[in-house]
């Protein structure tokens, strides 16, 4: 597949989104890859990385080996992931601490988008499929919001907003 420079910039930005998701506990960069439409290419490219690459490199050269593993795609994607983890880790940590509902809502929205994306691909709907989607959607919803509520009640302050050493003794 021939790609232009702008195509690789898009892949880098998808990698940045994946890295941001990877920084948040319980959220998967794979979900972002799936939603952004690169999941299959990512899995296929990673699957091609193995000892056989060295054989191709020896026989046909580095350029052929690089193409055989879709190296430019992987480099662009992993560069984006690295940029994101290195640059967004502090922001995500701050958001987790100060705006957990906002952050979890954003990632819940991404999960919901992936559900809708999958729903478009289902050819034969059945009661079992609809029930599975409803149950997993509800579980995802409660997981996101219960974690943010639990995070807002700090066990060190007894859930009442004050620390033990701040209690007036008189």
What does this protein look like?
There is one protein chain. 14% of the residues are buried. With 170 residues, the protein is an all-alpha fold. Helix 2 crosses helix 7 (100-121), helix 4 packs antiparallel against helix 5 (62-68) and helix 7 (100-121) packs antiparallel against helix 8. The chain has two domains: 1-97, no CATH class; 99-163 and 166-170, no CATH class. The longest helix is centred in the middle third of the chain and has 28 residues, at 71-98. 75% of the residues lie in helices and 0% in strands.
Task: Describe the protein's topology.
Elements: H1 5-23, H2 29-35, H3 39-48, H4 52-60, H5 62-68, H6 71-98, H7 100-121, H8 127-152
Helix pairs in contact: 1-2, 1-6, 2-7, 4-5, 6-7, 7-8
């Amino acid at each position: 597949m021939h790609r232009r420079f702008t195509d690789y910039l898009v892949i880098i930005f998808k990698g940045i989104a994946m890295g941001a998701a990877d920084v948040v506990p319980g959220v998967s960069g794979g979900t972002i890859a799936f939603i952004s439409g690169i999941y299959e290419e990512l899995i296929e490219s990673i699957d091609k990385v193995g000892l056989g690459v060295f054989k191709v490199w020896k026989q046909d050269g580095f350029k052929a080996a690089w193409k055989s593993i879709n190296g430019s795609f992987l480099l662009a994607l992993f560069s984006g992931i690295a940029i994101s983890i290195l640059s967004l880790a502090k922001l995500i940590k701050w958001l987790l601490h100060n705006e957990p509902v906002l952050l979890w809502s954003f990632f819940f929205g991404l999960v919901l988008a992936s559900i809708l994306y999958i729903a478009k691909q289902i050819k034969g709907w059945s009661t079992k499929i609809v029930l599975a989607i409803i149950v997993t959607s509800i579980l995802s919803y409660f997981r996101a919001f219960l974690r943010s509520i639990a995070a807002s009640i700090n066990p060190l302050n007894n859930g009442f907003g004050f620390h033990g050493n701040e209690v007036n003794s008189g």
